[in-house]
Every structure is written in structure tokens, then in C-alpha cells.
Automatic annotation (TrEMBL):
Compositionally biased intervals (Basic and acidic residues): 517-527, 542-553
Record region (Disordered): 482-572
Stored PANTHER family: CILIA- AND FLAGELLA- ASSOCIATED PROTEIN 210, COILED-COIL DOMAIN-CONTAINING PROTEIN 173
One CC-aspect GO term: axonemal microtubule
Transmembrane segments: none
Protein's name according to its UniProt entry: Trichohyalin-like
Protein keywords: Coiled coil
Coiled coil: 205-330, 373-400
Superkingdom of origin organism: Eukaryota
All residue ranges annotated as the Trichohyalin-plectin-homology domain in the record: 102-442
Length: 591
């Protein structure tokens, strides 16, 4: 069952599995058991009746027994290979025979053989069919009489049923007419009512459509008015913003004027204050002089000192406020000048960067043109070089192709010319020989040979094996000694290769008597049956050094038999067909 998890969770699980989580007690116990095992092994190493030494002696005895069994295996394998080689030859012959029988022409001959057998049985089948036809005619005559009798009864019954059905249908027809009249009147009334309702619906629909049209016109007018009002409002807002900006600018100008006026008033007030202070001093001095004159000089001096101190503090406070105001105005002026200078510097820097960037763009444009020209030049040179290499490669490939095509043409001419004609003629010889044997077998079994002769004639016409007609007299004088070749008969020097000998039953007990059903099932399927049932020839029995029972008694068949060093079995390889009468080289590419 699949589990969906994130990559981090999978990595955490993977790291957890890599950790060493073995219990140290288990490790210690395993090491102790290993120590006990090593100690026991060292102790029992020299004991004669120990399990290891007993197994060693048994292994030596087993190796000796295996060596004896290996010698027997070697002899058995040699005989096995010889038997396999003979079986391989039989299989190759059988394979060539199967390939030959699977071609179109042998299949045509086989169908002709089957046709001859069928034609022989056709007469007996015709007799049998005539008897069956007579029986069928008698049976058909009886069935026809029975059918005629039943047809008369069925006709009388149908006449009675038609009469009754006519009366019932007539009554039913009258009822249906009455019902149809009532239904037509009811439908007419319903149709008129429905028509009146439809007229009312149409009138109401027209009124609703008019109302909808009026509503749409009013809605469009209101929408236009709303859009116009929105545009007017946006214009008014724009004018208000503009007026507000102008008012803000005027307010700034007024503030500047007020600031200047306030500065002038402050200056005037300062001068007036200085004048008032000076007058006050004069007044105080006059008072002091008057008090000195009255004889209270000490007290007047003290008061004068306190007054001077207060005046001094007041003057210092006024001077501090004035200095603070001046510093504030100076700071405002300096900030304004600095902001203006910063703005001018930014503008200058921006213009400088703009001009610098423009100069760089112009320079880069010229540089890009130069680089592009160099690139086009290199591309043109590379193209010329590639064209030259491609021309050389084309010429080389052209020459290789011409050489290869010449070689393939020569091989094809040989393969499809001389070699193909020889193999085709060998196939024709084999087929014509096989057809002659089939004709002989058909004559022996008294089967009509017309089908076989027709198949042979079709094959000869298909592959043009009949001799050409004689040349006309105007051409015969130019071809003196010319004789057309007759290919419809096998060559005189052709001989069909003999089949391989049957297998020898050397390592098996006496074979039982053959089963007649098995013999019938194993009969040849090509229609070429033996002319006479001759008894099989006795094969020469070779002396067997050792049969299977002796081989089993030599050593137990436990799968431990081994060959001696240096003894190898030759590989069982499939030998290709070397006979010129077989066409398997054309398909499998054997040389």
C-alpha cells in the first residue's frame, strides 16, 4: 500500500535505519560464543574420531568413488555424443525434407495426391448419395401429402376466423367513428379556447415589450446623465485641485510676507526696547542721584546693583532669544540653500549620467557594428571551411558508395545469377523426381493420375520448364545446331541424396513390437507410401561395453560425478546444409 510522506520525513526515517542500534550485551554474547567455538575447534583438531576428521576421511573416499564414476561418465558421454551426432544428421535431413514439403510446389503435388484419393472414392460416394436421394424423395412425397392435408384444414379454419373477425371489426368500426366525432368536436372547442388565450398572451407580451423598451430608453438616458455628471464632477474636482494649489502657493507667498514683516517689527521692537532701556537707565540714574542727595547712598547703591543685575539678566535673556531666533532663521536659510544646491547637484549629476550613458550607447553601437562585422567575417570563413570539408566528405562517401555498390552488384549477380540458377535447377530436379515417384505410387494403387499430371504441368508452365518452340526458318539458319532445352524432366546425372541410417538402440533394452495404430499415425504425410509392405531389415548390433545398469552400479547417481582435468566434451553444434539440392542457404545465409 503506498504511503504519502514528505522528503524530510523520508530522510529522517532513512537516517534512523542507518544508526547502529545493536545491544552491547548481544555483541558481547556473540563474541563469547565465537571464542568458545574457536577454542573447541582448536581442541578437537587432533582427535581421530572428531566430526571434522571423520568427514575428511569420508570426503577422501567420496572423491575416489567420484573419480571412478567420472571415468564411467566419460565413456558414457562419448557414446552419447556419437548417438547425438547421428540424431542431428537425421534431424537435419528431416528439416530439409520439411522445408521442401512446405513449399508451394510440393504442397501442390500433395493436394494432387489427395485429389486422386478423393476421385477414387467419388464413385462410391455417388452411389451412396443416389440411395440417399431415393429415400429423401419418398420421405419428401409423404411429407408433401401431410402438408397439403394440414393446409386444407388450416385454410378452412382461417376462413371461419376471417368471417368472425369481419363482423367484430365492423361493429368496432362504428364505435370508433362515433368516438372520433366526439373527439373532433372536443378538440375544436379546445383549439378555439387555446387560440383565444394565445391572442391574450400576445397582447400582454406586446405591452410588456413596450414597457421593457421604455425602461431601457430611460435607463440609457439616466446612464448618459450619470456619465455626464461624473465627467462634470471630475472636471470640478480638477479645477478645485488647481485652485487649491494656487491658494497654497498664495498662502506660501503671504507667509513669506508675514515673516518679513514680523522680522521688521522685531527689529523695530528691539530698537524701541534699547531706547526704552536707555531712558530707563537715565531715569534710574536720576533717581539714584536724588536718593544720594537725600542721604541714603548705601541703600541706593545696593538697589542700583540689584537693578543692574536684573537689567543685565533681562538683556541677556533678550539677547539669547534674539540669537536663537537669528540662529533659527539662519538654519532655515541654510537648509533652503542646501536643498536647492542638492537639487541642482542632482540635476547636474542626472544630466552628466544621461550624457555619459548616451556617449556609451553611441560607442557601444559602433563597437557592436565592428563586432558584428567580425562575426560575419568569421561566419563566412567557417562556412567556406565547412563547405570545403563537406565537399571532400561527399567525394569520399561517393567513392565508398560506388565501390560498395560495385561489390554488392557483383555479389548480387553471382547470387541471383549462377548460384540461383543452379539451386533452382536442383529444386526442379528434386520436385520432378518426387513427382515421378508419386505417379508410380498412384499407378500402383490404381488411382487416376490426372490430378498429378495437371499439377506437374502447372509447375512446368509456371517456371517455364517446357522446351521453346522451334525457331522460324528465317532465324534457324542463323542458329545452326540450336536445340531447345527440355526442363520438364529431371537431369540424367541427378540423384537424390539418401536418407541417414535409422538410430541404433545400443543403450536401451529390446524395443517392443511396433503398434499398428502408432505406425498408422506416423505414416508419411506427403502421399508417397511404400509400394509393398516389406519387413524391416535387421540392423547390425554393436557390442556394448557397459549398459545403463552397469553405469548405475559403478557409483550412485548423486550428481557428484566429475570429469578428469583436461577432459572436455566437444560442443554440439548445428552443421549447416552443404547439399546443392537444398535451397536453405538462400534463406539462412549459410556459405
Amino acid at each position: 500500500m503506498p504511503i504519502a510522506m514528505s522528503k524530510d520525513e523520508w530522510g529522517r526515517i532513512n537516517e534512523w535505519t542507518k544508526l547502529d542500534r545493536e545491544d552491547p550485551e548481544v555483541v558481547r554474547r556473540r563474541e563469547y560464543v565465537k571464542y568458545l567455538d574457536n577454542t573447541s575447534h582448536e581442541m578437537t583438531k587432533s582427535w581421530p574420531n572428531s566430526l571434522e576428521n571423520v568427514n575428511k576421511r569420508n570426503e577422501e573416499l567420496r572423491q575416489a568413488r567420484i573419480q571412478v564414476a567420472e571415468q564411467a561418465n566419460t565413456k558414457f558421454y562419448n557414446r552419447y555424443l556419437k548417438r547425438k551426432k547421428e540424431e542431428q544428421e537425421r534431424l537435419m535431413y528431416s528439416a530439409r525434407d520439411v522445408v521442401f514439403k512446405n513449399k508451394d510446389a510440393p504442397k501442390l503435388l500433395l493436394s494432387a495426391v489427395i485429389e486422386t484419393a478423393v476421385q477414387k472414392e467419388r464413385l462410391e460416394q455417388i452411389k451412396f448419395l443416389n440411395e440417399r436421394r431415393k429415400e429423401a424423395m419418398e420421405r419428401k412425397k409423404k411429407d408433401d401429402e401431410e402438408v397439403v392435408r394440414k393446409a386444407k384444414e388450416w385454410k378452412e379454419l382461417n376462413e371461419e376466423r376471417k368471417k368472425r373477425r369481419f363482423e367484430v371489426n365492423k361493429k368496432h368500426q362504428q364505435d370508433i367513428i362515433e368516438q372520433s366525432r366526439e373527439m373532433s368536436e372536443r378538440n375544436r372547442i379546445e383549439y378555439e379556447t387555446e387560440l383565444n388565450l394565445q391572442k391574450l398572451d400576445i397582447l400582454k407580451a406586446n405591452e410588456e415589450m413596450e414597457a421593457i423598451k421604455d425602461f431601457e430608453e430611460e435607463f440609457k438616458a439616466e446612464e448618459k446623465a450619470r456619465i455626464f455628471n461624473d465627467m462634470e464632477r471630475s472636471r470640478a474636482e480638477a479645477r478645485a485641485r488647481k485652485q487649491e494649489q494656487e491658494a497654497r502657493d498664495k498662502m506660501d507667498n503671504r507667509l513669506i510676507d508675514v515673516l518679513l514683516k514680523s522680522r521688521a517689527k522685531i527689529e523695530q521692537k528691539r530698537k524701541q526696547t534699547e531706547l526704552d532701556v536707555k531712558n530707563e537707565k537715565l531715569r534710574v540714574l536720576e533717581n539714584i542721584s536724588q536718593r544720594l542727595e537725600s542721604g541714603d547712598a548705601a541703600r541706593e547703591l545696593k538697589e542700583q546693583a540689584m537693578f543692574d543685575k536684573a537689567v543685565k539678566e533681562k538683556l541677556e535673556a533678550d539677547e539669547a532669544r534674539r540669537q536663537a531666533q537669528l540662529q533659527k532663521e539662519e538654519r532655515f536659510r541654510r537648509d533652503k540653500i542646501e536643498s536647492r544646491e542638492q537639487f541642482l547637484r542632482d540635476q547636474q549629476q542626472r544630466l552628466h549620467e544621461f550624457h555619459t550613458t548616451r556617449q556609451w550607447e553611441i560607442m557601444n553601437r559602433f563597437k557592436n557594428v565592428e563586432i558584428y562585422d567580425d562575426f560575419l567575417e568569421k561566419q563566412r570563413e567557417e562556412k567556406e571551411r565547412k563547405i570545403k570539408e563537406y565537399r571532400e566528405e561527399i567525394l569520399r562517401l561517393w567513392k565508398e558508395r560506388e565501390d560498395r555498390e560495385a561489390k554488392e552488384r557483383a555479389e548480387s549477380r553471382y547470387f541471383y545469377g549462377e548460384l540461383a540458377e543452379r539451386k533452382l535447377r536442383d529444386a526442379d530436379n528434386k520436385l520432378l523426381t518426387h513427382a515421378a515417384q508419386l505417379l508410380q505410387e498412384a499407378q500402383h494403387h490404381q488411382r487416376p493420375p490426372y490430378a498429378l499430371q495437371r499439377a506437374i504441368d502447372a509447375y512446368c508452365k509456371l517456371y517455364r520448364l517446357y522446351p521453346m518452340p522451334d525457331l522460324p526458318k528465317s532465324l534457324a539458319e542463323h542458329f545452326v545446331g540450336y536445340a531447345p532445352r527440355d526442363g520438364s524432366q529431371p537431369d540424367a546425372a541427378y540423384s537424390e541424396p539418401p536418407p541417414p541410417p535409422p538410430p541404433r538402440q545400443a543403450l536401451t533394452p529390446a524395443s517392443p513390437s511396433p503398434d499398428p495404430t502408432a505406425r498408422r499415425d506416423n505414416a508419411r504425410k506427403d502421399g508417397l507410401q511404400p509400394l509393398t509392405q516389406s519387413s524391416p531389415t535387421k540392423q547390425k548390433k554393436e557390442k556394448v561395453e557397459e549398459n545403463i545398469a552397469d553405469y548405475k552400479r559403478a557409483a550412485p547417481a548423486n550428481g557428484l560425478q566429475r570429469r578428469e582435468e583436461g577432459t572436455f566434451l566437444p560442443p554440439i553444434s548445428v552443421v549447416p546444409c552443404t547439399s546443392e539440392s537444398c535451397r536453405c542457404e538462400l534463406k539462412m545465409g549459410w556459405k
